[in-house]
Amino acid sequence: MLKKLLITSVLLALSTEIVFAKATPYAGVGIGIHNTGGYTGLMENTFVGIGKVVGEQQDYYFGQEIFAEFGSVPLSNNQANRAKYGLGISLIPGIILYQDTMAYLRVGCEALRYPVFHSTDAAPQIGLGMQTKLYKNWDVRGEFLHSFGYGALDNLSRTKDNRLNVGFLYQF
Description:
Blueprint lengths: L1 H14 L8 E13 L2 E16 L5 E15 L7 E17 L2 E14 L4 E17 L2 E13 L8 E13 L1
Antiparallel strand pairs: 1-2, 1-8, 2-3, 3-4, 4-5, 5-6, 6-7, 7-8
């Protein structure tokens, strides 16, 4: 599953090269507080993406991103049941609110790895965020994300995942 997600991510990135002509690539790191079924944990994330301000008034943004997460989020009282890392892709449409600030929607998919179950499980995710310029090429962003259920525990119970992320990114 992880291999399919990676191949899809690469194909998506290559297929939009024409659309993103003169777009800005970026890379960043962040940290997120994950709440999965009432159990909370921290996951660090790293991401790369490309985005472009578009529209007649330059008031819209469209981007895409590939991200990876590392950490340990418990899924139950059994502390061995943990999500250890994940990989995902997202589309990021946004609206420019002020010259250096935008609000955005994140729509994507993430696959998380559960070592105890020897499985990887994918789920769609959606979120809202804000991003603003700190200094020259540096931006900071905060976002709330919801994943619509990983089936790591069994086929009947679907774990929901809510998270708050804060990240810093550098635009090249």
